[in-house]
From TrEMBL:
SUPFAM superfamilies: GroES-like (SSF50129), NAD(P)-binding Rossmann-fold domains (SSF51735). CDD domains: MDR_like_2. It holds the Pfam family ADH_zinc_N_2. It comes from Actinomadura meyerae. This is NADPH:quinone reductase. Residues 11-304 form the Enoyl reductase (ER) domain. InterPro entries: ADH-like_N, Chloroplast_QOR, ER, GroES-like_sf, NAD(P)-bd_dom_sf, Quin_OxRdtase/zeta-crystal_CS.
């Protein structure tokens, strides 16, 4: 099969190449997915740079990618949950960095897989799993509901835009940080936009004089602002700053879970959750997709289309 690989850690795209590799083996309880779309996430190029080497083993050559949407083409032994031809999606992170989703095929544990929502096209479904489940896990940990005012740092990004929609579906009032050009986008999702940067605390306090009851940080470097706007007894999480745990917060690290992903599919099919796709790239242009992700100015999701 065709796949993108890298044969050593690198902080740039110099080790990326596209070529033929062996088809994946399909073990007990696994499904073989023909990849139609695979979302790009910052963790993909951070892993390539060795950023997770302290906690996860890598076996080279590595196929990057943890998101997938596609069609079931094969089943391992004792895998009754799915059948060939099923349209599915998954957050396909494995315990070892080796066989990712930027390829024509990938084998994934069946309990990490959910059926693709009919309301999303392939590119949208391919961009949903990691970002959507990260947003979902963050909001579950915060336990936000109708009585909450939630501040989302980086609300127009891939995770942030999904978090706005999930929170609004739960009846939560949402204030979201973004650049001016993305304010109308956030209003369309149901959030109250504020510009990030100098004066952020004052701008948030104008909208929520008593402070916000919850904060979700999806960019990092926001701890001082978070603590300054948080109401007494408020809760906060971050996906990018593990020091929040020293200040009463939680560092979020999403886990593969097909049942939780299926909850997002239900939201999508009833029109409560959409996925903004910022751009698509063939396998051969994975480096360009990584560069776009590294820029930090992408609204929505970038997607690889094998």
């Amino acid at each position: 099969m065709r796949a993108v690989t890298y044969d050593s850690f690198a902080s740039d795209n110099s080790r990326l190449k596209t070529g033929d590799v062996p088809d994946p083996k399909v073990g007990p309880g696994q499904v073989l997915i023909e990849v139609r779309a695979a979302g790009v996430n910052p963790v993909d190029w951070k892993v390539m740079a060795g950023g997770l080497d302290g906690m996860m083993d890598a076996v080279f050559p590595v196929i990057p990618g943890w998101d997938v949407a596609g069609v079931v083409r094969g089943l391992g032994p004792d895998t009754p949950e799915f059948a060939p031809g099923d349209e599915v999606m998954a957050y396909a992170r494995k315990d070892v960095i080796k066989a990712g989703t930027f390829a024509q095929y990938v084998a994934v544990a069946a309990d990490h897989v959910a059926r693709k929502p009919a309301a999303l096209d392939w590119n949208q479904a391919g961009g949903l799993p990691l970002a959507g489940m990260t947003a979902q896990r963050s909001l579950d940990r915060l336990a936000v509901g109708e009585d909450d005012v939630l501040l989302i740092h980086a609300a127009s990004g891939g995770v942030g835009g999904l978090a706005v929609q999930i929170a609004r579906d739960r009846g939560t009032r949402v204030i979201g940080t973004a650049s001016e050009k993305n304010h109308d986008y956030l209003r369309g999702l149901g959030a109250e936009p504020v510009s990030y940067g100098d004066g952020l605390v004052e701008r948030v306090r104008e909208l929520a004089p008593g402070g916000v009851t919850a904060v979700a940080d999806f960019v990092g470097g926001q701890l001082d602002a978070t603590l300054a706007v948080l109401a007494p007894g408020g809760r906060h999480v971050s996906i990018a700053d593990n020091t929040v745990a020293e200040h009463g917060g939680h560092w979020i690290w999403v886990r593969p879970n097909g049942a939780k992903l299926a909850e997002l599919a239900v939201l999508a099919d009833r029109g409560a959750l959409g996925v903004e796709v910022a751009g698509t790239f063939p396998l051969e242009e994975t480096g360009a997709a990584f560069d776009a992700s590294r820029s930090g100015h992408t609204r929505g999701k970038l997607v690889i289309t094998p």
